[in-house]
Request: fold
Amino acid sequence: MRKLSLLLFLSIVGIVVFGQKEDSAFIKRISDEILVNGKAYENLRHLTKKIGARLAGSQGMVKSEHWGLKVMQESGADKAYMQECMVPHWVRGGEDRASLKKKPSGAIDWIRKDLDIVALGNSIGSEKNGISGEVIEVKSFDDLEKRKDEVKGKIVFYNYKFNDTYINTFLAYRDASQYRGQGPSRAAKYGAKAVIVRSMSHATDNNPHTGATRYDSNYAKIPAVAIGLRDADWLSTEINAQAETTKPAQLELELFTHGHFLPDTIGHNIIGELKGTQFPAEIITVGGHLDSWDNCEGAHDDGAGCVQTIEILRAFKALGYQPKRTIRFVLFANEENGLRGGNKYADEAKAKGEKHIFALESDAGGFTPRSFGMTGTEEQFQKFLSWKPLIAPYGCTEFNRGGGGADIGPLNRAFKTPTAGLNPDSQRYFDIHHARNDVFEAVNKRELDLGAVNMAALIYLVDKYGM
Ligand SMILES: [Zn+2]
Reply:
């Protein structure tokens, strides 16, 4: 009896060891294929340089959708198609401008300094003649509450700093971005006429960073802009210098923005599919979002995630890999200011009664892969964790609890589909995020390719073993 169970034990170990050897050999082949023959970088060059910005509703969006469909076909998808969804159509509407005017005590003329600002996405514009008024600087929402009686008729300047003590910069972003999202309405509640937000970044340059704001329908909509960090510091110094002198200068901020919404328009998720050979009804999704802000090329956010997604498809086909399960490669529409693409994808899956067993998103930049984060049951997490030794040699040395992506969140909510997100090194991401310097040149080919290698390895393992 003992001998028998020992034999059984040894044969199971043998199968596991053999399986691991086979898996590690195949993952090495995936890696070699992507690092030697990868097309992600050249695809990204096309997307960013030939098409460029692609905010929902824009011409860039339309061009990028056609490009995405074509590349999915060329990369060997069994089926490539567009999934229609209505998207919001916000436009910047002109050049955003702001300047600080200063009239020293006793002087006749104003001195003017232009500030580097960018209107927040979804924000309304100033009237034609702009908005001008006194600026009140607050350091936080608590500070705003304390000074709420001083806010009326003024421009509120949220000078909330990105928390440098977080090693994972996404934690600092989550912390600071509430000022972009809620800041305008919270200031409007007390009668502010516009809002300036310190950019959500710890960059050393002065580029302002946009991103979506959300108006609370209970309060007036007021124009809202982000300001570059150097100008934010300078503005703060000017304001505080006035408070400390007995002969304060007159300070006035002047603001011109033109943002507005046009009617919703038709956008698309772009989907490439490899049909499963054994369990075609079980669907694995991998993707990034195709839209970007209008003030940049959207290279890291999220051109990188899109070309990595396509690269996994290309590499699987190049290696002759036939998945057991159906793999969908998805370029999602409208992540930045509406999430209509991600919602549509989940809604349609629900309507068709599809079975979604796993979803992976890359939307944290095309930098060196460091970890995967995963949301699922304990059992699913343990399975995911067991694959770490196979993937770690390629960069993702940490497998953490909690992860996914904005576009695959609706799948998780609809089906409890386990989701994962690729987490590259985060130190440089917020230097470029939603700013004019998120351009192709900021992406390194090797780092981008390695991200695709790690993602492909994970998708291969989920496909082989299920989730
Ligand atoms: Zn993004």
Remarks:
- The longest helix spans residues 2-37.
